[in-house]
Amino acid sequence: MYYKITIDKTSKPMGRKEGQGEGYNRFHQEVKTCEELKEAKEYLKEKYGKCKRVKIYQDPEAKHIGYIYCFKSEEYSNGQTDRWYQQDWIVITEVKETIII
Predict the structure, then answer these.
(1) Taking a C-beta distance cutoff of 8 angstroms, is the pair 94, 13 a contact?
(2) Structure confidence at residue 16 (pLDDT)
(3) In a 3-state reduction of DSSP, which class is residue 42?
(4) Which one of 24, 39, 79, 100 is most buried, by most CB atoms within 10 A?
(5) Quick check: 5 and 33 in contact, CB under 8 A?
(6) What does 60-73 look like in DSSP terms, one character per residue?
(7) Dihedral of CA 33/34/40/42: which sign?
(8) Strands lying side by side in the sheet with 63-77
(9) Helices and strands, counts by H and E, the chain
(10) What are the C-alpha distances in Å from 70 to residues 1, 44, 73, 85?
(11) Helix or strand run (H / E) with residue 3
(12) Domain boundaries along the sequence of the chain
């Protein structure tokens, strides 16, 4: 058994007029595995620190299944600075594997 962290990274340029959560596009998915749940939580704490986070719920039971980490980011390239809002959707799953062959 191990734990899998799935991080779906989404972003939208600053200055857009869409409502909250609108206009975001997924640009990357990161997957990391850990032997212990504590290790997975420590990885996220180190990566995101005290960044704003919002709970993700799954219907119909409204079960809490993960977090969205929200922050601003920027990159300097070719004499220009690009700024954007980023939301990383994060779910940790427990994986149990059985060898078949």
Answers:
(1) no
(2) 63
(3) helix
(4) 24
(5) yes
(6) TTTEEEEEEEEEEE
(7) negative
(8) 25-34, 2-13, 80-95, 63-77, 52-58
(9) 1, 5
(10) 30, 13, 10, 8
(11) strand 2-13
(12) 2-95
